[in-house]
Amino acid sequence: MNTETEKTIIGLANRYIDQQLTDEELAELDRAVQEDPDARRLFLEFTRMNSALYWQPDLLPKAAGAPTQRIVWKRLLAAAAGIALVASLLHWQNLPPPGSGSYARV
Asked: What is the pLDDT of residues 7-35, one digit of tens each?
């Protein structure tokens, strides 16, 4: 993966965590993590690091003043969204191929 692609994935991941992705950007990120194992690995590492820093704030330099209630909720929602995306990616990878007969017919 080249540096520009890494910058793009990290930028999209950051906007994803901040819940600022447009529908087009979300589709681009989704496509990248599904098609490129390196992009998927980078996205997962970035979201893990973000979650670790959120849950262990003592790793960051001390800021002046405590975080507001709104920031705390945004971080919780971002962590939950990251977990949900990772779970859906793992589930997607374990689905049987279409036409394999593993799906129940209605």
From this structure: 999 999 999 999 999 999 999 999 999 99
Rounded to two decimals, the pTM is 0.52
CA contacts within 13 A on the Cβ side of 53: 12
Look at residues 44, 53, 52 and name the one whose alpha carbon lies nearest to residue 9.
Answer: 44
Q: At what angle do helices 69-93 and 23-35 cross, to 10 degrees?
A: 40
- Dig out the tokens for 24 from the structure: 């087009």
Over its C-alpha atoms, the chain yields an Rg (Å, rounded) of 17
Task: Copy the structure tokens of residue 4.
Answer: 């520009």
Contacts of 15 (CB under 8 A, 6+ apart): 21, 25
